């Protein structure tokens, strides 16, 4: 299987059939992407190229090796077997869930299981129609095209995808004004795998063109423990079960974070001349990196404390919270909030975010507006 990573615009092409004025805005760089090293550990976005290369080496390469996500694996196993029997390409697949849960990894596994190439790109690299046209025209029969952050696709790019996904056809406009004609170019059958952290932001015409829509869930501690042990083996690091479990508990249900924490703990163990990582070493290391026993870092604590103290527990709107903490609203919504919601430290209501009594207790905060339970009944 060849993995082709495409972040650059592709070959020139003619204009797409339909055009709309409003393209989706480009995502802005988040303040946390430039922040301190201890925050970096919990960031799901990878900005460091070296770390990116190392991440590639940690990816499981088959469904069997892919730990957890039992339901997802069951569905995809059937889809793979059926497609192989019929000698067809896989149906288009939409994977959604918070960052770092294994969407890209799963796409690469699908390609490997099907014996085809996987071409990887992301919506921000598909700004101009010719970017996607060039990629589509270079596809081979059966190829998997992985588009990350698919909810950020510009409308024009999205409209090129509609006939490509449905009829394996590229519609391009030749000429201008009254003499303009639409020319259709056949495409090989391919599989589009879209990944998103915000499935609700996809337009329905795009969402409806995916035959399979699957959610990735946060991982359980025992699954993350296995992931830490597997990564430790690859990195030739000795970790006890207790040590792996300690790292797993602080990994916010996310394999990418588990792998990063393991690397930081390995640094600590090396500097302190420990030959193996046990529970005590793992927890001592994570104190230094400011990761608490539940995996919360200082940004989580800042968000919760700000809500509790400045907004009397909420409800508080996302933009107001972003302005008060200096954090980017996308980062709060897509990186931090999902886990805080998952562990019941935050509720989302139609009137805004509310901090819960459990979060107050964890942070040792008193008083405030304790209406989170009633407001949670209104959760959106
Ligand atoms: N089920 C799993 N078993 C073992 N390792 C995993 C699993 N899922 C993810 N990983 C590890 O976590 C890392 C992050 O996974 P991946 O890049 O696939 O996440 P993602 O959901 O695509 O994230 P993003 O949306 O930020 O691109 C990978 O390097 C891989 O090693």
UniProtKB/TrEMBL annotation:
Kindly indicate whether the keyword DNA-binding belongs to this entry: yes
| InterPro entries recorded | AAA+_ATPase, AAA_lid_4, DNA_helicase_Holl-junc_RuvB, P-loop_NTPase, RuvB-like_N, RuvB_wg_C, WH-like_DNA-bd_sf, WH_DNA-bd_sf
Recall the GO molecular function terms of this protein's record: ATP binding; ATP hydrolysis activity; four-way junction DNA binding; four-way junction helicase activity
Entry superkingdom = Bacteria
Annotated Mg(2+) binding lies at 104
Q: What Enzyme Commission number(s) does the record list for this chain?
A: 3.6.4.-
Basic and acidic residues bias locations: 49-58
The domain comment in this protein's record states: Has 3 domains, the large (RuvB-L) and small ATPase (RuvB-S) domains and the C-terminal head (RuvB-H) domain. The head domain binds DNA, while the ATPase domains jointly bind ATP, ADP or are empty depending on the state of the subunit in the translocation cycle. During a single DNA translocation step the structure of each domain remains the same, but their relative positions change.
In the record, the note on similarity to other proteins reads: Belongs to the RuvB family.
What's this protein's name? Holliday junction branch migration complex subunit RuvB
Q: Which organism is it from?
A: Chamaesiphon minutus (strain ATCC 27169 / PCC 6605)
